[in-house]
Design goal:
alpha+beta; 5-stranded mixed barrel; 10 helices; 48% helix
């Protein structure tokens, strides 16, 4: 499994890039948004990767951040969602907006993405919410003090769920929320604030 590829950006195409590593050119599929964020060709870049291997296909998918990679992994874990559909969805949404849509059951938002109908959107929400519940069960905290701090309202719990979708550990999230004044923040503001603090660690 390739965790990342670092090398010279050789070329940028519509849906993929080529990175030169020691004379080998790696063809890496990426979303349009991710490609647009890359520097000009000739510069050294680092891309987080997802390595897909099948009998008739070996492909590498690339991402600028761990959050994008996490979103992709969640999407391809949903039945009926393939890698190409997941990449297309990444071109239409950033990880934070996607997480908010999942925890708020926003079917309308998901159906705006290419290849996603109402039934697919409902299935994505259902399957990913189940995964979050399993993660929460595994990482259940024994620290009663922290539990009490984050127990203040449903908004905080929804924010925790959203940040878990992005791959952050529940205990780390709750520790960060202990030091945030949550009363005046909307759900989206709270998630963004938590994401900002977690990225500093």
């Amino acid at each position: 499994m390739l965790a990342y590829i670092k090398g010279k950006l050789e070329s940028k195409q519509t849906d993929y890039i080529v990175i030169d590593v020691g004379g080998l050119g790696y063809k890496i599929y990426m979303s349009r948004i991710a490609i647009d964020k890359l520097p000009k060709t000739g510069e050294t870049i680092k891309v987080h990767t997802y390595y897909k291997v099948r009998e008739d296909d070996i492909s590498i998918y690339g991402f600028n951040t761990q959050e994008e990679l996490r979103m992709f992994e969640l999407l391809v874990s949903v039945s009926g969602i393939g890698a190409k559909t997941a990449i297309s969805m990444l071109s239409m949404s950033d990880p934070l907006e996607f997480a908010i849509a999942i925890i708020s059951d926003d079917v309308k938002y998901l159906t705006q993405m290419p290849g996603v109908g109402t039934k697919s959107a409902q299935r994505i929400i259902l399957e990913l919410k189940d995964k979050i519940k399993k993660e929460k069960a595994i990482t259940e905290l024994k620290d009663a003090t922290i539990k009490q701090v984050v127990k203040d309202d449903g908004k905080t719990q929804e924010a925790i769920d959203a940040l878990q979708v992005l791959g952050y550990n529940k205990k780390d999230i709750e520790n960060v929320f202990k030091n945030i004044d949550k009363k005046e923040l909307t759900l989206e503001e709270l998630i963004k604030k938590g994401l900002s603090e977690l990225s500093k660690k």
